[in-house]
Write a structure and sequence with these properties.
The protein has 155 residues and is mainly alpha-helical. It contains six helices and no strands. The chain is globular and about 70 Å long.
């Protein structure tokens, strides 16, 4: 009887958990389609191009940071799975965050809650990165410039 009860409980827990995972995957795929779609590719290109021309220009990058902030908030609230977010977006989140960090800090002096969930997500992604055995990648200025050039060519 006890074994049947445990099996029933595990089956129920799985039935409750499974739809949540499917919904999280569906939501993540929608974010992925948006991020790699023509409109966001154009925005990313514009942000990178403007920043290459003027390293103090983060105006166009704000939309991208806001996009990642939404992903971070949904991850923090467990609507998105951390591993799936890391697997799908870590490359871009990590680099945009590294490039915009001085700007983020400056804006947070005036608006402390701005991009707060993104600040939370970064160590979470770094932790997942370290678990893969690759460790945290040191992003040199040259690597960030190459990333911006890659993004500028997106549109």
């Amino acid at each position: 009887t006890l074994a049947a009860l445990v099996i029933s409980f595990c089956s129920l827990a799985y039935q409750i958990w499974r739809p949540g995972l499917v919904q999280a995957a569906d939501l993540l795929m929608r974010f992925e389609q948006n991020f790699f779609g023509p409109e966001k590719a154009k925005q990313r290109s514009l942000a990178a191009t403007n920043h290459i021309k003027n390293p103090e220009d983060f105006h166009e990058m704000e939309d991208i940071l806001d996009f990642f902030e939404t992903i971070a908030m949904l991850t923090r609230k467990r609507a998105l799975d951390r591993y799936m977010v890391w697997h799908t977006f870590d490359y871009w989140i990590e680099r945009y965050y590294a490039i915009a960090l001085p700007y983020i800090h400056s804006r947070q002096q005036k608006e402390p809650g701005l991009w707060a969930d993104l600040n939370w997500l970064i160590p979470e992604l770094e932790h997942l990165q370290s678990k893969t055995g690759n460790g945290n990648v040191a992003l040199s200025p040259d690597a960030l410039r190459a990333f911006l050039a890659e993004e500028a060519s997106e549109a």
